[in-house]
Amino acid sequence: MLKDKIFKKFYEEAKKDKNIIGFFLGGSRGKGKITKYSDYDMYVIVKNNVLKKYKNKYKKMEIKDFSFAVFSFSQFKRYATFGGPFEWNRYNFTHIKVLIDKNSKIQKLVNEKGKIPKNKIKKYISGHLDGYINNVYRSLKCFRDNNIVGARLEASNTVRLFLNIIFALHGGRTRPYYKYLEWELEKYPLKKFPMKKKELIKTLLRILEDANIKTQQKLFKLTEKIFRKEGYCYVFDSWEPEAIDFIKKFK
């Protein structure tokens, strides 16, 4: 294909260019989930003193289905840091194999960006687990008050928070973009979570569809069992017993 030839040309040039120290593909091509719609999202890491020159060079290149993200090495180190403004883009660096790594540091940086830092996992899970409990509680209280709009919107928040914590529980994995969720569950199963992929997807979609009370309660009870076993009892125990009981028994 013509596009493959164009990419190979960029790749070969990058290998020979002494100012380019890192080169890889992001997006679906970088993860190996290639479809006929997959673009070539190229990341080019250059020496610190030539950033402006290479930004201008690639900015002038307008090729359909090709994009260029150009960083200096120092800039790339700071990009998409945990807790930073571009944290939302960290999943983009998961399952990525760096094609050119001339200083032997790019792959390590990419791997780090694709996960929650080890020393942050417990705090991250604790906070998001507390948020998950809170949103389930709020959703069911809205049902109690006959506030259907509130119940559904609160329930929709629980899906994101649940996925945050269940992926983080598996070695600090980052919640995937929803486009990749089914693929991620199939290729990299959540071994600490007993639901099969189809059942989990069905559960999440049912919650999004109408905030079904029984479905929310079933997922909550399973989540509590798993996270208590993993040492997060204190998050549940920080809530009034009546609140947890309300979540489990409300009809």
Strand segment tally: 4
In the sheet with the most strands, the strands line up as: 3-2-1-4
Q: Helical stretch count?
A: 12
Gross morphology is elongated
Which class do the helix and strand fractions yield?
alpha+beta
Q: Could you name the ranges where pLDDT drops below 50 across 5 or more consecutive residues? A: none
* Helix and strand sequence: HEHEHEHEHHHHHHHH
Radius of gyration: 22 Å
Count of the separate structural domains:
2
**Major sheet size, sense and barrel closure:** 4 strands, mixed
What this model shows, in words?
The chain is built from 12 helices and 4 strands. With 251 residues, the chain is an alpha+beta fold. The protein has 2 domains: 1-114, Beta Polymerase, domain 2 (2-Layer Sandwich), CATH 3.30.460; 118-249. A 4-stranded mixed beta sheet has the order 3-2-1-4. Helix 3 (51-59) links the parallel strand 2 (40-46) and strand 3 (66-72). The longest helix is centred in the middle third of the chain and has 24 residues, at 121-144. The radius of gyration is 22 Å and the shape is elongated. The model has no long low-confidence stretch (mean pLDDT 96).
